[in-house]
Amino acid sequence: MNINTHSNFYDKDQKYVWHHLKPYKKNQNTMIVKSAQNAWITDIEENKYLDGMSGLWCVNVGYGREELAEAAKSQMNTLPYYPLSSSHLPAIKLSEKLNDWLKGHYKIFFSNSGSEANETAFKIARQYHHQNSKPGRYKFISRYRSYHGNTFAALSATGQSQRKYMYEPLAPGFIHVEAPDEYRKPLEYTFEEWSIICAEKLEATIRYERPETVAGFIMEPIITGGGVLIPHPSYVKKVQEICQRYGILLIIDEVICGFGRTGKKFGYQHFDIQPDIVSMAKGITSGYLPLAATAVKEEIYQAFATEKEDAHFRHVNTFGGNPAACEVALRNLEIMEEENLPERSNELGNKLRSKLSFLEEHQNVGDIRHQGLLFGIEIVADKETKIPASNEVVASIIANCKSAGLIVGKNGDTVKDFNNIITLAPPLSISDKDLEAIVEKISKGFNTEL
Ligand code: PLP
């Protein structure tokens, strides 16, 4: 492709395509990606980058898996579409497989995106309480710094004001509590003590709001886009106890943490809990086709398992559970099993963490945290005061990483000048050699000797 053709595409891109999340910059070309293989993407200029973010935290099995393309093709030739008001074999097989992965008995409702999976969870929770003669339970509690999606209820549950304030007023009935942050906890407490205090704050909030008005509590096992906040196990356990004590459904958002990202099949499996509802998307197909699911514990589903008039879930999703997407998901999960990718994520995560130790000396690196291949590197202006680094400092590290051939992410807290956590979430199938390349490129990105 010659340079004139390229400039043509850049011009057309600027003219027609509205990019997600991207701040406008006059006459600035956006990278146009044309192909990808394993952990690498290639743009139309033939530049190659190691994709340290698996797209948008989703290409868990890596790019270029022909089996997934074959699964989609073969299913499209057999049955490209049928709504799930009836059934089809790919949805049945995938639901059974998800039950294995969830280690429980769950009914699976399919949709297309993480936002929809959470919307579905909220509606199921409200109707569940209605059908259990508790129609007053309509509120949802979630955590500051979490992200749960772009639709109105999912955004209402989101705890990041920068993503919300332009679209307010959002849905009523969504309340936020603080999530424990080990790096920024008050110094006088151990992390476990602080975690228990945060769980007690959740309980206090439930009481202030009146438990009989609260339908559910939604959390990611590890806050991802809000800066990779790994909880103490006592926190998660206590949260489940509190939810159970007050009759509140525990909804676990596994949209990023699921499918091996954190070193287990699902993120909640690091903790000794069993959620009432699990929402999932992204890694379910490794991003090859859109698919999401809301898994609902059989006991909760029982409120809908009645022939009483109007007791069914009045929710339809045209594309949810598309047969080709389900087939791709099924094959994707099989690949993860065959290649032990959740375990691999755990091993490689530990390996990468120890190889990144050299970064601890960097003047702007306040904290490096990870669970499996989910990493957050917190960038500060001053290690003593932990004041977040400016946007410019963070942006220059990200740009240096890109110049070195590595794509990293940027995430953080709720206010504009606090997007200071660089994230890494490479494909779980990444080779040892490419893992080494990440380390080398990070060292260039941070201008630090290995
Ligand atoms: N939940 C979490 C934790 C997410 O990170 C995201 C998206 O990044 C969503 C939900 C929404 O998913 P989607 O963008 O597929 O709607």
UniProtKB/TrEMBL annotation:
Pfam families found in the cross-reference section: Aminotran_3
Gene3D superfamilies: Aspartate Aminotransferase, domain 1, Type I PLP-dependent aspartate aminotransferase-like (Major domain)
Lineage top rank: taxon: Bacteria
Presence of keyword Transferase: yes
InterPro entries registered for this protein in UniProt: Aminotrans_3, Aminotrans_3_PPA_site, PyrdxlP-dep_Trfase, PyrdxlP-dep_Trfase_major, PyrdxlP-dep_Trfase_small
GO terms of molecular function: pyridoxal phosphate binding; transaminase activity
Ranges in coiled-coil conformation: none
Record keywords: Aminotransferase, Pyridoxal phosphate, Transferase
Keyword Cell wall biogenesis/degradation: no
Family named by the database record: Belongs to the class-III pyridoxal-phosphate-dependent aminotransferase family.
Protein name (database record): Putative aminotransferase YhxA
Organism for this UniProt entry: Marinococcus halophilus
The encoding gene: yhxA
